[in-house]
Amino acid sequence: MSAGPSxxxxxxxxxxxxxxxxxxPVMTCASLDALAGAKLYFKCENLQKTGSFKIRGxxxxxxxxxxxxxxxxxxxxxxxxHAAAVARAAAARGIAAHIVMPKNAxxxxxxxxxxxxxxxxxxxxxxxxxxxxxxRLVEETGGVLVHPYNDRRVIxxxxxxxxxxxxxxxxxxxxxxxxxxxxxxxxNAIAATSVRPSVRVVGCEPANADDACRSLKSGHIEKNxxxxxxxxxxRAQLCDLTFGILRERVDEIVRVSEQEIVEAMRxxxxxxxxxxxxxxxxxxxxAVGRAVRGEGKRVGVLLxxxxxxxxxxxx
Amino acid sequence: MSAGPSxxxxxxxxxxxxxxxxxxPVMTCASLDALAGAKLYFKCENLQKTGSFKIRGxxxxxxxxxxxxxxxxxxxxxxxxHAAAVARAAAARGIAAHIVMPKNAxxxxxxxxxxxxxxxxxxxxxxxxxxxxxxRLVEETGGVLVHPYNDRRVIxxxxxxxxxxxxxxxxxxxxxxxxxxxxxxxxNAIAATSVRPSVRVVGCEPANADDACRSLKSGHIEKNxxxxxxxxxxRAQLCDLTFGILRERVDEIVRVSEQEIVEAMRxxxxxxxxxxxxxxxxxxxxAVGRAVRGEGKRVGVLLxxxxxxxxxxxx
Lengths: 315, 315
What we know:
2 copies of one chain form a homodimer. Helices cover 46% and strands 15% of the residues of chain A. Chain A starts with 6 loop residues before the first helix and ends in a 12-residue tail after the last strand. Chain A is built from 13 helices and 10 strands.
């Protein structure tokens, strides 16, 4: 068995974070149903505080710090939604947040972090430079690292989304979740398969950053040689913890082309009037493209976030 | 007294149309509240069927046709949301819809009308040509004209939005509604001031098409010499019916610049993750710009629609 959180951990997390997050709505759309040949239920984490699901895991981790740990603040590394979530969750607890961001991170994401009071340390935009910078910050500040996904508390927090979705739509047949480092998929796969063992959990991944798909096939953690995808939230790679959970709990990983991502994003904007980011569209594409044998079924789609730079849209 | 619909008419309309429309959510947003210095309640008609409030009035009118009238179908003139709404409401009743549209109407709007089974007649893009074409169609087909706003049934239908909003937020202090031909503002002003007499109803209008503002000041219906505004749903003018209702029920009309419209639209997209069209942003701008003495108050904002051409965004 993996060392992932249990359903109980996720249930406790849900109660712990409830005062600090939105219970996001589940939306439906007749015209997307028609395309999918299925009944789609969209869990709208784009409407979540900070504009993505990440506030769930960050809040769950930060609320569990001891007073002594909290006094030293937290450290994380992220160029995007997790950075803003940690900054906000730290601010809610009144503690410092040190965020390592690549120096090419979008200005809008940096502003969001600073708007929540986070302190940014810029580094070279490589995996190694970010890891090194965050280690150095932990040493210097004594702060606790809140990793974006290699953290049971974070994974438990993310899983609360599926818990809510299954409360609203108990008889779900399929659940589509984007996968990057695997924190969101791990937490929601544990929650969904525990509450409803018959549900089929499908990870959705850009074909241009398909490490999870290849890893589950080969049985080893595979790396992304490149991650050239518009889905800027899905460029990370699995870690031992999330890989173990995915092997146990996930039925399938589907790969989505860049064109499919943009088309699905546009569909949701046009038909549902919801701003979603490309990473969220990765879980929409297999539904409307009928790539997951969901026809005639009740299919949950986790819309992971809505943070996009409106000055640089792909349409 | 004007010959507008009564609160009872609007209540009956609400029951009549309920099976055919969405009860749209009322959303809130902490960061827009901070800008406004007020508690804002957004009635999300962008999430309504056909992407705008127009389905309310169209449905209310079409459901009241006698069997003999219905058999001859309906006629309307609109380049935008009312056209799609009439087409859809007619389809729901299984009757024909003939729509006069200017020949420069956006292709996406024409596709929406045709998608609902509406039959389009193109005409020159002038007020006179559209009126003449619709009169001709009424003569030829024997169909009933469902005017976009010069129609008590349509006005009563539109007013059901404020009825719902006040059910969800009974203690509203201010209500902001876009104004064009005045159907939406008339219906919602009647509903809101009848249910809650203390509410201050404010019409919101592009400064570049400010006939309503000038009309209420002069006491006569004033025309727009031009209507050069990005708010493509707000280029029409008041008629006798709506002018009379506005004089009785509306406290103020505020004028909004083109830049304010685009900025407010962008704010809602970025912070609320909602796709709204420029016409809806016209009611957001006075709230976030503190132009309506709403500070410290509960302010309702009617987000009238979300139909935009994603290929031609102003940002």
